[in-house]
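The protein record filed here.
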Amino acid sequence: MILAHKNASLLKNLQFFLTPILSISFLMPAVSVGAEKAKIAALVNDEVISRAEYDGRLSMMFFESGLPRNEHNEKILKTEALRALVDEKLQTQEALEKKIKVTDEDVTRGLEAISGQNNMDVDGLTALLKRGNVPINTMKNQVKANILWQQYLYQRASGDVTVSPEEVEERLNYLKDNAGKPQYLVAVIDLLIDKPEKEKDVKELADQLYVQMKKGTAFSMVARQFSQSAAAPNGGDMGWVMEGQMMPEVDAVLTKLSPGEISHPIRSPFGYHIVLVRSKRKMLEADNRDAMADLRQLHIVFDGTEDEARKAELRQEAEKITSEVRGCPAFEAASKKYDSGMTGNVDRVKLGEMPDQMYMLLSAIDVGKPTHFLENETGLLLLMLCHRDEAQIEMPSEEKIQQKLYMEKIDVLQRRLMRDLRNNAYIEIRI
């Protein structure tokens, strides 16, 4: 988004890729030049994006967006899939040229973060992708490219981006002067239009994504696959903003949204934007998302063998726990019946770090009462709030303000770098 001016265990348990050759060639079947070309989706400088990579990304976009897969939608998403793959290839090439490296452990941590945002562990995410015919390597490659690019941005920023003490003081005074005014915790999906002829397709895509998210598709998943901002790998999260800090077109809609509400696509000079307001507060007033809590989780597993009748029985069991169980000792006793790696204690977690659905449920219940269950492909999840320390009012530290300003400048840097990379690259689309 263009601006005008875990708890680790929680994420893990819930919740971003000549002679020997000649002799071998005699043993291989002949492959025509045409067949080899058919395996190439695009060329980016001197590197290939394979048809398999394209097919995997297209499948993941359909799966994560919830859009029906038909010929019309494939035509629209083809452009998005190729754009994303080309951008990631350019980003990866640039990062590798600067000797930046990403380890398998880095990729695993990225997958754990994505899993946590969707209330599951990595095994659950892998199984979910498999059911959607999406190779796990497709997501791994995307996560790896995102990490490489983020590290490259920070390396470039160390020389190109600075935040002066005067800028920090100016923002601090701005906060003080606007104490008591509304703030919005927002996430944004940016669908940019770089050519006028793309207007119709981008508008249609924005409308379809909006409909799917209203039906329940996770905003963060759509943002990761489709958004074209530096915040995309983080699910589009922009942090807390005030009226006047976003583009005028977005500001006009932002103030009318309630917490948890998603905007219709908003047209700006740059493209279309979809905004999610996660929470609202007043400047320099205590924020419920900063409250610290001790939680208990109960996970009723779907192992894939249940028919609808059995799932209905398990839902009834979950509803009975919600209506009858009171107090954390009783909830822990009820949990022993259900063997799952996601069943257990989550202590000293900030409520605002929970996935949105969980945060909304926990904000609406008293200590010692279970939530209604959340359901996904892995099963049913119930939560109980066992202890809660209310948030305290505090002025953001100079360090936090500096970090916020730094990230705003990083986003500007990223857009400039990507424009230059695209303009200077040789890109040939083969499909």
